[in-house]
Design goal:
It is built from 11 helices and 12 strands. By secondary structure, it is an alpha+beta fold. It folds into 3 domains: about 200 residues, no CATH class; about 150 residues, 2-Layer Sandwich (Nucleotidyltransferase, domain 5), CATH 3.30.420; about 60 residues, no CATH class. The mean pLDDT is about 85.
Amino acid sequence: MAKPKPNAHQLTRSLKMRIYPLTAWSEEERKTFYQMLNQQSYIARNIANETVRVAWLRSGKMPVPYEKDTEGYHYYCAKWPDMAPSNVNQVFRWAKKKYRAHSKAIFVGDESLISFRKGSPILLNNQHDYKLMEKNGSYEVDAQFLPSRNQKGEKQQNRWTFGLSNLPRDYEGAKILKRLAAGELHRGQAAITKKKGKWYFILSYSIPQEETAVKDLLDDRIMGIDLGVVKPAYYAFTYHGEIQKDRGCIDGDEIAEFRRRVEHRRQAISRQFKWSNRKGHGLKRAMEPVNKLGDKIRNFQLTCNQRYAHFLVKMAVKHRCKHIQMEDLSGINKNSLFLKYWTYYSLQEQIKNQAEKYGLDVTLVKPAYTSQRCPICGHIESANRQTQEAFTCQSCGYGDKSKGSYFVNADYNAACNIATPHIDEIIADYVKSHLELKKANNQQE
C-alpha cells in the first residue's frame, strides 16, 4: 500500500506519549538507553545554539565556520559524530526555522537572541528514523539515534525499540494512533523531550481536513472576539453584516484568583530569601520553589487557553460562522498591562488551531479604534469610551441610558466592531475622510 502524503487540505496535529523501557531490558540496558537520550539531547542543544549564533553572525557579515546550509550540515555531522546524520539535519533545520521566526523581533531589540536550554528535543525524521508499531493493543517505537558505525569505524547499535504509555484515552485519539501504526495517516516529524525527569515521545501527523471540518457553515456569518484585561474574551456575531443579540464573555474570576495566589506565593518566597545566605547547592535547592511556580503558571495558562479556545470555536460552530475575526496583537508592546498577566498570543494560537480543525477561517484585524467606534452609526471618537467598562456614542446616543438606550459594555462593543465585515477598510476610510474634513476646515479658518 502506498504511503499517504500530506497536501494543502490536511491538518497537522500531534500526540504526546510517555516513553518507557521494554520489560525484557536488563538494568544495564535501561541505564544505557537513558544515558544515550541525555547525550542526544545535549548534542541537539549545542547544534541548535550554534546554528542560531552562526545565523546571527552571518546577518552582520561576521566570520562564520560555514556559509551555505549544505556546508553547515556537514560541519555539524563532523563536529558531533555521535548523532545520526539525519537527526543532525532535523535539528539544524529546526533551529534555523526558529531563528527566522524571531529574527525580526531580535533585530529591532524586542527580543534577545534565542538560546536553547537543557532538555532540547531530539528530532526524528518521518521517513526512516522511526517506526510506529502496534503489538496486541500496545505500541512500540523503533528509532535511530546513532550512526551505524562509531568513530573508529566499527559497527554499533544505532537503533532502539521502546514502549509508549499514557496513550490517548478518548476514542478519537486511540483511533488515530491505530491508523498511524497501520500507515493510514501520514506521520510527520517526531520529537523526544524530557520534562521533570520523564521522557516523552511527541508524534506529529496529518489528517484530511474533510474528516474534521463542519459542513454547514455560512460564509456571511462572522464571530468577533475581543481580548481584554478584566475578561479574557468577549464575543459577538454578525449575520449578513447585521449585529446579533447573542453575545457572551469568558469570566476571568479563575485567572484573577490564580494571579492572587501566585503573587502571594512569590511574596512568601521573597521573604524567605531576604534572610537567607545560601550559596552553591543551597541556593539551587532554595530556587526549586521558584522554578516549580513557573511551571505551574505555564501549565495553568496552557490549560485555560486550550479550554477557552475550545469553547469559543464551539460557539462559532453553533452559530454556523465560517469566519472568526480577532485583534492583531503584533503591534502591542510586550510590556503593556494588556499582555503582562496573560499569554494572549498563546490563546490566539489555540483558537487558530481549533478553528482550523473545524474548517473555520481566522482573520486578524487591526485593533485601532475598534473600542472607540459606534457599531450603529459608525462614529469614532475617544470620548465614546469615557470609562474602561462603558461605551456611549456621542453622536447617536448608543449606550446612553438618558437617551433611551441600554448600557453597552465597552469590550462587547469592540467585539461587535471586530465582527463587522471589512472593518479595517471601514475604519481606515472613516479616519481618512475625517482628517481631510479637519484639514479643509483649518484651511477655511
